[in-house]
Amino acid sequence: MSSVDYSQFSYFNIYFPAEFVAHVEINRPRKLNAFNKDTWTQLRDIFHLISTDPNVRIAILSGAGERAFTSGLELSPELLAMLNGGDYEEERARFMTRKAIRDFQDSISAIENCSKPVIGLAHGIAFGLAIDILSATDIRICTSDVQFSVKEIDIALAADIGTLQRLPKVVNSLSWCKDVVYTARVFGAQEAHIQGFVSNVVESKQDGLEAAFELAKIIVAKSPVAVQGSKHLINYSRDRTVQDGLEYTATWNAFAIGKDMKRAVASTMSKSKPQYGKL
């Protein structure tokens, strides 16, 4: 259980199923967990809190109900007006549109920038924004009935919240990535697994939650200094040359190596379970 108050987030359920594990559930099942402005703002604020919460070492992100992880953006007149700059005159409207898009990008990036690993569990409908969100998670699991789609092309929009930047870096084929982006076609669990978008396919949502919880329990037993450092270094190195990543990692570990390593080595030698302090 965390000492941080997460009860303020009306569009999400937040549970603590095990020590150091947070389960964040998108909670708009009647709307297929679609996102309005308040939903994406709350998503950002939740992951900012998780990032600094010493009682959380890993988060699981899923969608409430049986029908959808998320169907994407809720296309309301208010949202469309905001994305078109509202009532501002033309050149100022373009600045307001850019600001709205950047705010949305920052909300989704809060998942990737969270210092703790995030496991994404996709089931049912996972369209549009779902791909943006899942591409920002660290580990992805899906159910066998999932339906994925990079849907933005179908509303005459180039995806602008992160899919075009992250998806090519998490899948095996740029050709396949362009295929699903340009066509907006629906693809399923097997195709997502073959292309490396997900690392595990399970039969049902409940199976997925159990798999995510088991994986989370393994990870939280490791040194949080090592786990959080590994996430940071992987993401840093992904966007830079190998040499830049090596140089930065050398500096990082020069400061990060310490008592946790001594505990881990001692526990290995004594065949005991190490205990690590909060971070």
Helix content: 40-55%
Query: Count the strands?
Result: 9
Count of all domains:
2
CATH class of the largest domain: Alpha Beta
* Sequence of secondary-structure elements: EEHEEHHEEHEEHHHEHHHH
What order do the strands of the largest sheet run in, or round the barrel if closed?
Answer: 1-2-3-5-7-9
List keywords for this structure.
2-enoyl-CoA Hydratase, Chain A, domain 1, six-stranded mixed sheet, globular, 15% strand, three-stranded parallel sheet, Lyase 2-enoyl-coa Hydratase, Chain  A, domain 2, single chain, 279 residues, alpha/beta
Question: Describe it for me?
Answer:
- The chain has 279 residues and is an alpha/beta fold.
- It has 2 domains: 12-220, 2-enoyl-CoA Hydratase, Chain A, domain 1; 224-270, Lyase 2-enoyl-coa Hydratase, Chain  A, domain 2, CATH 1.10.12.
- The protein contains 11 helices and 9 strands.
- The strands form 2 sheets. The chain has a 6-stranded mixed sheet, sandwiched between helices. A 3-stranded parallel sheet has the order 4-6-8.
- α9 (224-238) runs antiparallel to α10.
- The longest helix has 24 residues, at 90-113.
